[in-house]
Amino acid sequence: MNIIDLHCDVLEKLVRYENANFRNDARLSASLEKLKAGNVKVQVFAIYIHTNIPENEKFLAAARQIEAFHTKVLCEPEMVHITEWEQLNQLEDGQIGAVLSLEGCDCIGEDLIKLEHLLNAGVKLVGLTWNHENAVAFGASEDPSKGLKPFAKDVIHLLNERNIIIDVSHLNEQGFYDLLPLAHNLIASHSNARALCDHPRNLTDAQIKDLVKHGGRMHVVFYPPFIENEKETTTINRLVKHVEHIASLVGIQHIGFGSDFDGMDFSIENLGNAGEYQNFIKALLKTFTYEEVAIMAYKGFRKYANTMNLARG
Ligand SMILES: [Zn+2]
How far is the CA of 260 from the centre of ligand 1 (A)? Predict the structure, then answer.
């Protein structure tokens, strides 16, 4: 079964690792060979800037990751750069769609032109924060009662104007609620249910319902500490419990996946890299019908993205 995955951190590793190669580097959990083995049809590649990179070097670090996206990912003949969502409908057998996202606006500082540069480079999803405070908002590890900052208004306006998806996965709770009525397109690209695992990176039942009420989607993440409290490893069945719980709240059509491969130091048993993706599909098929799983794996997001195009047109 085909998969659309909304989050991986391959680009950060392609820049950081010496002589890294996207095709079959054993150090990558979402290398091209593993994406193929797992039937991943579309992969979103996050630009993630490590917190130890100094403020004045963050934008350059983002530029380096975009360069790696071109020179190491898109140079592979199977890879297709998705710059318009309708391209999802045109992917041929053997092709894999590659989408850019920005994991937190830290690297733009208070400069909207920098954000425009990133959007012009093809970024289609933007998270306002990673876990910490920046010029836009407060991240998931900050005080949950602090809302969006004044600069957020300009950022959200630009993102709406450019029909960009705003990713709420790393945002704190008040920022989330401030954002809901303002954003046109919303997704939690890699978060689970807080009711099953009480971590600030996960969403409460109320947040999940409100997200979907505002047209948003909930893409589950494979990071064990967000599946089972403080666990370094867990099982696929535990992850399926999150899917079942979210489905009971909002229905399967708003659920998708955002593995976070290459952004994790721990992994789920038998789901340690993109090549093992179909193990998750097999487990979901024990609870859900083939059509339901296909909607979660691929069709639901594709429909969402097509609807965005219609809204824009
Ligand atoms: Zn993340």
Answer: 7
